[in-house]
Amino acid sequence: MRCPSCGEDFDRLGLHWWHGTCPYPEIEPEIEEILTGLLMGDGSIPVRRSGYTSLIHVPMTNRTFLEWLDDRLGILSTGVSLKKTASELASNNRQTGFSPTAREENYHDMYTLWSRTHPIFDEMRETWYPDGGKRFPGRLELTPTVAKFWYLCDGYLDFGSWGRPRLGIKARNEKERGEFLESLFDTFDISPKYRRHELRFSCDDTELLIEWMGEAPPGFEYKWELDSKAEYQRLKKRAYEVHATQTLS
Ligand SMILES: [Zn+2]
Asked: pLDDT tens digit string along 183-203?
């Protein structure tokens, strides 16, 4: 991989930057927002080993999206790799008792994107993991991009039987802070309610929020389909057929 400053190739660019000959690449504001949204959802920054710089990893079944993200992060990403196969996930869940009757055909392969090490992840680790566990920072500011990447990780559409869909975002990790989560949307005249470990939006607010967040990234088109339940289900099915894989033993 080529260092953008000196133009030389290195196997481990993070280490090259760490040595200080060339600076760490600057993170553009939109990338920082994408990383923030992902950290609210599936992304996490593991404890760094002493002497090392931090990184983020994003595990997901949606390979199309992760490949798009890999491309968008550019030099900051080390690529997408298979983390656990469908068979391994089912077997894990049987063994731990999480789901004693787990069947592999109901699971999808889990992929992970690993970033390079960068000081921005040291800062984020400090801000987001004050006591070891992840906690949304009090000064968190939602932008359309932050909200979009949080939504695609933990959000869903519920069509129910009333026709127009309602949006929900699961936030079990923040279950003591419902009012704080609701307040994130105050400035946008969107008023979700936090109930049963998730934010629930009205039909009108769902439409406002989807429009405000902007276009769906590749792989998550179904979460943006408000017009028809049948179309939503078709796109969702396609997402699992096209954007996820199943390795069965
Ligand atoms: Zn260099």
From this structure: 999 888 899 999 999 999 999
Q: Name the amino acid, one letter, at 114.
A: W
How many angstroms does the Cα of residue 190 sit away from the middle of ligand 1?
A: 46
d(CA 104, CA 123): 39
Buried b / exposed e along 141-151 (16+ C-beta atoms within 10 A): ebeebbbbbbb
Task: Calculate how far, in angstroms, residue 26's C-alpha sits from the geometric centre of ligand 1.
Answer: 13
Q: What is the DSSP letter of 219?
A: T
Structural domains in the chain plus CATH codes: 27-127 (3.10.28.10), 144-242 (3.10.28.10)
Cα(244) to centroid(ligand 1), Å: 36
Across the strands, what pairs with 156? 168
- In sequence order, what E strands does the chain have? 57-60, 77-84, 110-115, 155-158, 166-170, 193-195, 198-200
Distance 27 CA to ligand 1 centre (A): 16
- Alpha-carbon distance 48 to 127, whole Å? 14
Band of residue 57 on the pLDDT scale cut at 50, 70, 90:
very high
**Distance from the Cα of residue 204 to its chain's centroid:** 25
